[in-house]
Write a structure and sequence with these properties.
Blueprint (H helix, E strand, L loop, with lengths): L1 H10 L4 H34 L4 H30 L1 H18 L3 H5 L3 H43 L1 H48 L1 H6 L3 H53 L5 H10 L5 H8 L2 H17 L22 E10 L2 E11 L4 E5 L6 H8 L7 E6 L2 E2 L5 H5 L2 E5 L9 H6 L7 H10 L3 H5 L18 H15 L3 E5 L7 H15 L3 E5 L3 H4 L4 E6 L2 E6 L1 H7 L2 H10 L11
Parallel strand pairs: 3-8, 3-9, 6-7, 7-8
Antiparallel strand pairs: 1-2, 1-4, 4-5, 9-10
Length: about 575
């Protein structure tokens, strides 16, 4: 149990000092609390022995009052030092976790870990935040009280002190058994909490599809099963802890009775006077109360221990190496803006990119075409270093992307995706993300170039209109134009368009094509698209199949070659697509 307390102290970082000072005042509180009991016994003894006069009682009364007042002061200072520490600690840890997540490869987020991240942030951290400091303070206070009581008993009467010491050791042994049992049980409980979080997220995110296919009952059943399993895990946890609680309570009663028997024998034999005997009898139950309470309430520490394990597991995920010093050099007409050299990449042990090499000079446009799943988007993600390649090299302006700071790399690239995500914020701030230091006039000008100024101004609050989470309050075309405005504001020299117009209706297509034209002026462009008119004017077209470049050249060259690309064009002209016919 002390190990868990030590873990919390270790992660406290800069707040360790205030916590340790709080422990000192917690010790003083326990000392003063027990001192008041001893003083009360001494007053009774002096009264019965007639050794005290009026002034002595007054002196004892003042000392007793001072103990009570100082105890209240110690409690106040201890609580003040610790009360906000848990919230401050978790606030810092959340920021640290956010920084860590930012540096993780994208594969971590697409590998089914969203439920884990959500559970860590919304369950584990909140539990520690709300319970850690209070549990820590109470536990240390109880341990101090138990130690002080036992020491007082040893000085008070060695025989009673030894009985108290043996009883304390017995209760500690049983309590540690309860704690270790809770540790093993807490793991399954917290893992199920993660499963429940994931199930709820899946249900909410897919509610539209679920309703469309009338699967509400089936999906609700899956979520209901998770609720029931979470309930079962909690009940199992409690049912396994109850027997240990019975053992602790039994030990408490037996040890308290043993103190009473020892005091009675000593009193009858004349080795303990009446006053001290009455004192023992009056406070006999208080001797083991601190240990009883701390171990009966140890479930919080066991859960906290597992919460810390889960937080540490996320924090230990390997980050993308970031040199953090070198920058992308300036572009040069003689050096390719983008170059892939024999690049290989495997995801989940399956090679998805195999020995890919190509070059894009400054201002050129390269188009990637091929069947779904061929590796086109993966190549774009590798350029932005969302993942690290397994072999080969990717260079921008002659510099390997693994040798430069991630911040410098990402400042060179703008990406427009098919599925646009807007944050729950104003339209203005969603655009300003492209360059946070931009002036309002620059943000508005970017919106004009992206052909979204007019529809923004038609909204009730214009640029200050709040956007629903994910951009739910806007149409697909409107979201796409806002994302393009964001990229225009960023003004990066390399632009990646990943199926940017694939899902756009005819009414929005013209405006979006105009917006893309504004975005791409003077830029080095990588286009991933299925639409023929989007790619036919590219300087170079790469045909990707099974993670390999199987054809390359401009439109006319590839048409004359009579290979896969020509087959693709003929399929498109017949109003079908990559998936409608098998590519030979």
């Amino acid at each position: 149990m002390i190990r868990s307390i030590q873990r919390i102290i270790n992660i406290a970082g800069k707040y360790q000092g205030r916590i340790k000072i709080a422990f000192i005042f917690s010790f003083l509180k326990s000392l003063l609390q027990n001192a008041a009991i001893v003083l009360a016994v001494l007053m009774v003894d002096g009264f019965l022995q007639k050794n005290l006069v009026g002034k002595d009682f007054l002196r004892y009364g003042l000392i007793l009052a001072a103990c009570v007042l100082l105890q209240a002061l110690a409690i106040h200072i201890s609580d003040r030092l610790q009360s906000a520490a848990g919230f401050l600690l978790m606030a810092d840890l959340r920021i640290k976790l956010g920084e860590h997540l930012r540096r993780l490869p994208m594969g971590y987020f697409t590998g089914g870990n969203i439920g884990k991240i959500s559970s860590v942030l919304s369950t584990d951290m909140v539990f520690i935040e709300e319970n850690s400091m209070m549990t820590l303070a109470d536990s240390m206070s109880y341990f101090f009280s138990a130690a002080i009581f036992t020491i007082f008993m040893l000085f008070f009467n060695p025989v009673i002190g030894i009985v108290a010491l043996i009883g304390s050791i017995l209760m500690a042994v049983i309590g540690e058994g309860k704690y270790r049992s809770g540790i093993s049980l807490s793991k399954a409980r917290q893992e199920q909490s993660e499963n429940l979080t994931k199930a709820v997220l899946d249900y909410v995110e897919g509610i539209g599809i679920t309703k469309t296919y009338n699967l509400l009952g089936e999906k609700s059943k899956e979520m209901q099963e998770n609720f029931e399993k979470s309930c079962a895990e909690s009940l199992h946890f409690e049912s396994c802890q109850v027997p240990w609680g019975v053992k602790i309570n039994t030990a408490f009663e037996v040890c308290s009775a043993a103190i009473g028997v020892a005091a009675s024998i000593l009193f009858v034999s004349g080795n303990l006077n009446l006053t001290y005997f009455l004192g023992v009898m009056l406070f006999i139950l208080d001797i083991f109360v601190p240990l009883r309470v701390v171990y009966m309430d140890s479930e919080k520490l066991t859960i906290m221990d597992q919460c810390l394990d889960r937080i540490e597991a996320v924090m230990k995920e390997e980050e993308l190496p970031d040199p953090g010093v070198q920058k992308i050099p300036a572009s040069s007409a003689s050096v390719p803006t983008v170059e892939f050299r024999n690049v290989r990449f495997a995801y989940d042990a399956k090679e998805t990119i195999s020995d890919v090499s190509f070059r894009v000079m400054e201002g050129e446009t390269i188009a990637l075409v091929g069947p779904s799943g061929s590796g086109k988007t993966t190549l774009a993600n590798l350029l932005a270093r969302f993942w690290d390649i397994d072999a080969g090299e990717i260079l921008i302006n002659g510099k390997s992307v693994r040798e430069v700071a991630l911040s410098s790399l990402l400042s060179q690239i703008s990406m427009v995706f098919q599925n646009v995500y807007l944050f729950k914020d104003t339209i203005y701030h969603n655009i300003a993300m492209g360059r946070p230091e931009a002036t309002r006039e620059e943000v508005i000008e970017a919106a004009r170039k992206a052909r979204c100024y007019d529809f923004i101004m038609s909204l009730p609050d214009g640029f200050d209109t709040m956007v629903g989470e994910g951009g739910a309050s806007l149409s697909g075309g409107e979201k796409q134009r806002i994302s393009i405005a964001r990229c225009i504001l960023k003004d990066a020299p390399i632009v990646i368009l990943d199926e940017a117009t694939a899902s756009i209706d005819a009414d929005n297509e013209a405006a979006i094509q105009q917006a893309i034209s504004e975005l791409c002026k003077g830029k080095t462009l990588m286009i991933i698209a299925h639409r023929l008119k989007t790619i036919r004017d590219a300087d170079c077209i790469l045909v990707i199949k099974d993670g390999k470049i199987v054809e390359s050249g401009d439109h006319e060259t590839l048409m004359n070659a009579g290979g896969i690309y020509r087959n693709f064009v003929e399929i498109k002209n017949a109003d079908t697509g990559w998936c409608k016919r098998k590519i030979s």
